[in-house]
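Note to self: keep these together.
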Amino acid sequence: MTTTVATHSKQTPPAKPADGHTEGTPSTRTILLVFAGLMVAMLLASLDQTIFSTALPTIVGQLNGVEHMLWVTTAYILASTIVMPVYGKLGDLIGRKWLFIGAISIFLIGSVMGGLADSMGTLIAGRAVQGL
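Structure:
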């Protein structure tokens, strides 16, 4: 008498790595680092707005440009509103990390431009660059 043993081709699930997450999902440390980076960038922008809005009347008075005072804030808001969808699409195309670093660099360049401004036009241009 012959007995046949049926073999079932069960596939074993892939073993999980020692750190507890599967391939393709970020670790908790990575998520916390990204979150911390975003929070620092938000702090940078918030401090800029708070400090600048407090100092704006004095700056405008020294640059003799009261008639252009609203453009200082408007240029920043307008530029950031325009480039937000552009950054979203570029982030999808080229990646978000280097785009984020580039955006912070542009913000710092705009801060230097605004800090070194000797006229209202330069100050407004610096704020527009910060908004980018």
